[in-house]
């Protein structure tokens, strides 16, 4: 027998309405993010005469992969994909090298000014990179790092370290300090405790930090556009932008390049999906 609420409706009816509203929001959000992807795929495989079709047609009348062949043969898109892959992997490696011991120290050590330093790191993260792009450009010029991948990687690491420290620290905070004490009793020093005992436990957090920073580096445009001016050094985001002409634009080529640019991200997400989901869940519940 269904329990009656104050308004006279059964809990079963309220639950159904709540569930329906929840799924409606889910579907709306899913459509918001999925539709641009489907539209790019549709645009990349439709004939030229159907680029702008009235009425709007998501599924083209016929499929052609001619534009993919043109993009692969007549542009440096594979070079740009390789450049982005190299920059993203080195950026992630650099961030993990710097952030892991820093997050461990902020989580485990008690020292004077710790709270102030954490707040200062958080404040730095709130500054938009666009605001400091001119000082960063001047600094890169003084160090001779303009138009180099090393300079761009250093910029990305500098910009993403504050966020990554806060994110990874929250995962270290979820691990009981008794685990550290047990490792110390067994003869481990601080470094051995971090490497052999704690790192396996925070692996979901490391996966989340890696994915966030990989995606950031892959999609970032403003800093790359500021630092790089040689087309052979372009990232994939700059490469896709270069398909836009001054007087005419081949939207099918832009769509095909965008689809090619998505593939490495999809592969990485599928490979680390298990760690990513568990890492977000742990961080949300325990962080």
From TrEMBL:
<keyword id="KW-0813">Transport</keyword>
<feature type="transmembrane region" description="Helical">
    <location>
        <begin position="118"/>
        <end position="137"/>
    </location>
</feature>
<keyword id="KW-0472">Membrane</keyword>
<keyword id="KW-0812">Transmembrane</keyword>
<feature type="transmembrane region" description="Helical">
    <location>
        <begin position="20"/>
        <end position="41"/>
    </location>
</feature>
<dbReference type="InterPro" id="IPR050901">
    <property type="entry name" value="BP-dep_ABC_trans_perm"/>
</dbReference>
<protein>
    <submittedName>
        <fullName>Carbohydrate ABC transporter permease</fullName>
    </submittedName>
</protein>
<keyword id="KW-1003">Cell membrane</keyword>
<feature type="transmembrane region" description="Helical">
    <location>
        <begin position="253"/>
        <end position="272"/>
    </location>
</feature>
<feature type="domain" description="ABC transmembrane type-1">
    <location>
        <begin position="81"/>
        <end position="272"/>
    </location>
</feature>
<comment type="similarity">
    <text>Belongs to the binding-protein-dependent transport system permease family. MalFG subfamily.</text>
</comment>
<dbReference type="InterPro" id="IPR035906">
    <property type="entry name" value="MetI-like_sf"/>
</dbReference>
<dbReference type="Pfam" id="PF00528">
    <property type="entry name" value="BPD_transp_1"/>
</dbReference>
<dbReference type="InterPro" id="IPR000515">
    <property type="entry name" value="MetI-like"/>
</dbReference>
<keyword id="KW-1133">Transmembrane helix</keyword>
<feature type="transmembrane region" description="Helical">
    <location>
        <begin position="221"/>
        <end position="241"/>
    </location>
</feature>
<feature type="transmembrane region" description="Helical">
    <location>
        <begin position="149"/>
        <end position="172"/>
    </location>
</feature>
<keyword id="KW-0762">Sugar transport</keyword>
<feature type="transmembrane region" description="Helical">
    <location>
        <begin position="87"/>
        <end position="106"/>
    </location>
</feature>
<feature type="transmembrane region" description="Helical">
    <location>
        <begin position="193"/>
        <end position="215"/>
    </location>
</feature>
